Amino acid sequence: MDPLIEEHRDEILKLARRHGVRHVHLFGSMARGTATVDSDVDFLVDLGETASALDLGALLMDLQELLGRRVDVVTESALPPLLKERVLREAVPL
Question: Which pLDDT score, from 0 to 100, does residue 24 have?
């Protein structure tokens, strides 16, 4: 896991809870340890029962501000079938 994520892990999880997200996983280059200074941060999340698309958007914006990087936040149901298997295989829980 990338040092940037390790450094901000607690804040990431706090933001997720604030926006109704139950589980947060990291995937992509940050999870594989191959990130560069230009890499984005990819999060796979599980929305709680009360969370909405607005919460997901607000979480994305808060994470971008916290990390100073472009961020993608996706749910498992939003993943295309061809990508889902790879993402689930490499996803690392925070």
Answer: 97
Q: What is the CATH number of domain 3-93?
A: 3.30.460.10
Question: For residue 44, what are the contacts with CB-CB under 8 A and spacing of at least 6?
Answer: 24, 25, 26, 27, 74, 75, 76, 79, 87, 88, 91
- Statement: residue 51 has pLDDT above 90: no
Task: Give the distance, in angstroms, between the CA of residue 39 and the centroid of all CA atoms in the same chain.
Answer: 13
CA distance linking residue 84 with residue 94, whole number of Å: 19
pLDDT in tens, 76-87: 999 999 899 999
